[in-house]
């Protein structure tokens, strides 16, 4: 007896298929597949909540209160701490010093990292030795770096001023002139972080398909043109990442200017006091005003967020213009071929 297709739904309703019971191991496996992804990512969110989110929210709570290190909470004051900080000349001076050191360190640092990474990406002998040598300054502690560079940039008996005297140049007051102090501190920052950025950029360069370089060589492109028209476009996402991280780290610089001299106050006239040093001095210095220190911390946070947003918008603008540019380029080539 054959069952037609019209009779199959009727039979299915009259004789439903028996439901199989799930065993305990099958239930556990199904539950494990649903819960395991959340358990794997839970430690990150727990640690971030304890060490990142909670301190940030608690700092926001302190910033709107009159809070002293010894006296504790003295009551709600609203945005009075923010207005008081914005009215201090030292805040604007420290902000200017921070941006000056940031520009003098980040731009040369990234340029040097790209060039060194390009050299290490070539066929060099003892590649491991050179890569380890590039990374060694990053391992050195900031205090040791400050001691070394403090001797190099000493005003009276520094090695840099001694070399300037050899070429009949006047000595530089590294601890007096603000621009000279910013340059010396930026040199310390570049010494420590160039190798770290180099290895990240080198990893991006090694991920570039070698077929692109072979095609460029066949087309007759020189090494310089291959670098600018193949390497740089292919590592653009990594460069954007390095710019963003350098911006965040450069605005939070503390160790190098703090240990640039023995006083740790940013110079006799605060020539190289950064925003984080001003925050530290406000919270743990003579005033011990935690409310204003928290307000400075939140102002710094907002500045970092604003610069990150500007970087994002610039990158998005560049990315949105690229397809149109490629389309116009392809259209022009098509017209040239058809002509």
TrEMBL record:
Membrane topology recorded in Swiss-Prot or TrEMBL: Multi-pass membrane protein
GO biological process: transmembrane transport
InterPro entries reported for this sequence: ABC_transporter_permease (IPR051393), MetI-like (IPR000515), MetI-like_sf (IPR035906)
Record keywords: Cell membrane, Membrane, Transmembrane, Transmembrane helix, Transport
Transmembrane residue ranges: 37-58, 99-120, 132-154, 179-205, 226-254, 295-319
Compartments (UniProt record): Cell membrane
CDD domains reported in the protein's UniProt record: TM_PBP2
Any one cellular-component term (Gene Ontology): plasma membrane
Residue stretches making up the ABC transmembrane type-1 domain: 95-311
Residues annotated as signal peptide: none
Family label: Belongs to the binding-protein-dependent transport system permease family.
Name by which UniProt lists this protein: Sugar ABC transporter permease
Natural source organism: Arachnia propionica
Lineage: Bacteria, Bacillati, Actinomycetota, Actinomycetes, Propionibacteriales
């Amino acid at each position: 007896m054959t069952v037609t297709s019209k009779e199959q739904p009727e039979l299915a309703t009259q004789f439903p298929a028996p439901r199989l019971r799930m065993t305990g191991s099958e239930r556990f496996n199904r539950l494990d597949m649903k819960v395991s992804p959340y358990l794997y990512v839970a430690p990150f969110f727990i640690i971030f909540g304890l060490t990142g989110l909670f301190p940030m929210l608690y700092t926001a709570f302190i910033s709107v209160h009159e809070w002293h290190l010894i006296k504790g909470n003295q009551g709600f004051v609203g945005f009075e701490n923010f207005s008081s900080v914005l009215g201090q000349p030292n805040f604007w001076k420290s902000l200017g010093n921070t941006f000056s050191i940031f520009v003098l360190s980040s731009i040369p640092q990234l340029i040097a990292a790209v060039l060194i990474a390009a050299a290490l990406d070539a066929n060099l002998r003892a590649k491991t030795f050179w890569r380890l040598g590039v990374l060694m300054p990053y391992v050195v502690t900031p205090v040791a770096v400050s001691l070394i560079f403090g001797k190099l940039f000493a005003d009276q008996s520094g090695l840099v001023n001694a070399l300037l005297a050899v070429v009949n140049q006047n000595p530089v007051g590294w601890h007096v002139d603000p621009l000279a102090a910013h340059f010396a501190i930026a040199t310390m920052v570049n010494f420590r972080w160039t190798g770290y950025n180099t290895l990240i950029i080198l990893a991006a360069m090694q991920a570039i398909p070698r077929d692109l370089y072979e095609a460029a060589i066949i087309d007759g492109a020189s090494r310089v043109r291959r670098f600018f028209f193949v390497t740089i476009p292919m590592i653009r996402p990594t460069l954007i990442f390095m710019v963003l991280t350098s911006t965040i780290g450069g605005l939070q610089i503390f160790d190098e200017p703090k240990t640039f001299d023995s006083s740790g106050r940013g110079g006799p006239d605060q020539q190289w006091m950064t925003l984080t040093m001003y925050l530290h001095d406000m919270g743990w210095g003579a005033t011990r005003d935690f409310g204003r220190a928290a307000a400075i911390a939140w102002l710094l946070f907002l500045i970092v967020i604003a610069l990150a947003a500007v970087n994002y918008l610039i990158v998005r603008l560049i990315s949105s213009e690229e397809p149109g540019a490629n389309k116009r380029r392809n259209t022009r080539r098509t017209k040239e071929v058809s002509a």
